[in-house]
Write a structure and sequence with these properties.
5 strands; globular; binds adenosine monophosphate
Length: 189
């Protein structure tokens, strides 16, 4: 199994690169934001999830962990996973490590898509014109970036300590970023 994680601030291109990776390596693309957005459409939890997403805050761990673990267990006979937007804090990361250990699986590479806040904001505002996402607006972006810095960025050290972290320049066009990622996989797997 090839199991990968992709990190980066909102707007860095995680979703786009994760889709390309899923296609190239036949991985299951597991986007926690997307799982939550689907649940908003269908589920009873919709109103609660919308409140957190529209405020740019992380939804409670208990809720997202249950959803992600359900999606993992459903796809264990696949070729692997690309996690996009998960984990978002140290508790989620430790819970994921514990689950993978129990399952006898491993996360091989953690990508960090690097992009500064100014460029990230510009990209999200552009995306907001067509994405239809209620959290792609100026006010929510500022909070999402703050949450990223405070709760998610510290995870980079956690994965660096495990020797898994690979930094990727998120500034160039989609193809060039994907080339950096693919080359990293080629030389490390
Ligand atoms: P994303 O699609 O990854 O940009 O996520 C959009 C929003 O969904 C975030 O701002 C959070 O409100 C929520 N969300 C996504 N992933 C997580 C997660 N792993 N833990 C908590 N909340 C999350």
């Amino acid at each position: 199994m090839l199991n990968l994680l992709i990190f980066g601030p909102p707007g860095a291109g995680k979703g786009t690169q994760a889709s390309l990776l899923a296609k190239k390596y036949a991985l299951n693309h597991l986007s926690s934001g997307e799982l939550l957005r689907q649940e908003r459409e269908n589920g009873l939890l919709g109103v609660k999830i919308k409140k957190y997403q529209d405020a740019g805050r992380l939804v409670p761990d208990s809720l997202i962990i249950k959803m992600v673990e359900g999606a993992i267990k459903k796809n264990l006979d696949g070729k692997g996973f690309i996690f996009d937007g998960y984990p978002r804090n140290i508790y989620q990361a430790k819970t994921l490590d514990r689950l993978f250990k129990t399952l006898g699986k491993n996360i091989q590479i953690v990508f960090n898509l690097k992009l500064n806040s100014k460029a990230a904001t510009e990209r999200i505002l552009l995306r907001g014109k067509t994405s239809g996402r209620s959290d792609d607006n100026k006010k929510t972006i500022a909070h999402r970036l703050q949450v990223y810095r405070q709760q998610t960025a510290p995870l980079l050290k956690y994965y660096q300590a495990q020797g898994k972290l690979k930094n990727i320049d998120g500034r160039p066009d989609i193809k060039s970023v994907f080339r950096q990622i693919s080359d990293t996989i080629k030389t490390n797997i």
